[in-house]
Write the C-alpha cells for this entry.
Amino acid sequence: MATGQAPTANEYISHHLVNLQVGEGFWTWHLDTLIMSGLVGIVVFGLMAHVARNATPGVPGKLQAFVEMVTGMVHQQVRDTFHGKSELVTPLAITVFVWIFSMNAIDLIPVDFISGLLELAGVQYFKAVPTTDPNATFAMSLTVFALIIIFNLKFKGVGGLLHEVFTAPFGPWLAPVNFILRIIEEVAKPISLALRLFGNMFAGEVLFILMVLLAGLWSREALLASGASMLGHVLLSLGWAIFHILIITLQAFVFMMLTIVYMSLAAESH
C-alpha cells in the first residue's frame, strides 16, 4: 500500500488485521497493541485520577458524576457477587471494566482513520483496537487466573485447597476424577475469558472492514469517485456502530462480572 497503487481487497484486509511486530517467534512483540492499550490506560485512568483529586462533596460536575456513576455501579456488582472480604476486588473490577470498555471503544473510530494517518508516516500494518489481538485478551485473562490461584491459597490455605481439589464434587473415593475435573474447570476460565472478548471484538472489526469493501471504498480513487457508495457506507456503518456500542459495553461488563465471580468462588469453600 506504500507504492502509491490502489490496494487489492486482500491487501486492504491485511493492512487492518496484521499487527505491527518486532522480534521473531515466541518473543514477537505486537507494538500496536502495547502502544494503544498503554495510551488508553494513561488517558482514561489519568482522567479518573484527576477527577478524584478534584472531587467536591457538594453538587458534582458532569464528569465527576459520570465517574461516580461508573464506579458506583461496579462497586454494587462486587457487593452483590463477592461474598468474601478483600480490598482488591472492587479496584480490580473497576480497572477491568473501564480499561476494556475504553479499548473496545476504539473500534467506533472509522477503520481507516488511525491506520491511514500512520500509513502517511510509513507504517504499513497497525491494528488500532487492542482487544482484537488475542495476545492482549489472554494477558488479561491470565492475570485474572493468577489472582484466582492467589485467592484460593489466601482464603483456603494449601491444605484446604488440596482438600477441595481432590474431594469436590464426588467425595474422596473419586479423587482422580475430581482432580481432572478441577483442572479442566480452572483451565477453561482464562481461555473462555480471552476468547469471548477477542472473538466478539475481532468479528466487529471485520464487519467494519467488510462494509468498506462492500461499498468499494478501500482505495483513495474509489473514495473520491463514488459519492453514492460513500453515503451508503456511512449509513450502514453508522447503524452497525450504534449496535456495536452495546457489544463493546456488554463484553467489558461480562469480563468484569466473570472476574468477580471467579474471585468469589476462590474465596469460598465447598
